[in-house]
Amino acid sequence: MKAKVVWLIFAIAGAILMAKASAAGQKEIAFYVAPNGNDSWSGMLPAPNKARTDGPFATLQRAVEAIREMKRKQGGKLKQPVTIYLRGGTYFLSQPIVLTPEDSGDMQAPITFRAYRNEKVVISGGQRIAGWKRKTVNGKAALVAELPEVREGKWFFPTSQGRQ
After folding, report:
1. pLDDT tens readout for residues 4-22
2. What is the pTM of this model?
3. Which segments of the chain are extended strands (E)?
4. I need a labelling partner for 158 at 20 to 30 A (CA). Which of 24, 28, 44, 123 fits?
5. Where exactly are the structural domains of the chain?
């Protein structure tokens, strides 16, 4: 009886170690996102190729969609770890990135978002404003920029009196 219990313990331990080794041995799938990328590319290269026909994605949203597509093709569950590498630069989001349970990995196939080789990455919910001009407003020097979104009522800036 004692020999059977010992054998069973070794069999279970062996199965666990083999499962861990199998999961650890799975090759990671890597997607890349870069400011000089293009969302119509594969996202599988860290930089554009010489012909500029393939390279990283341009947006984080496209990388999330690529993982969703991969999960669907694999029957709803990833078979290997996936990492989204963000190349250095600032990524301006025009809308929030919404992650749902569909966007989760698991212990054997985690999904990781990280900077590429310690490059500095900034994800900004702000909007870049260009076209600044020096003007005088109410007798004071000021920098002024024309914002069509404000004129169209799409952007609001709070004031001490409330919304404006």
Report:
1. 444 434 444 444 444 444 4
2. 0.70
3. 29-33, 82-86, 89-92, 111-115, 121-124, 133-137, 140-144, 158-159, 162-163
4. 123
5. 27-124, 133-163
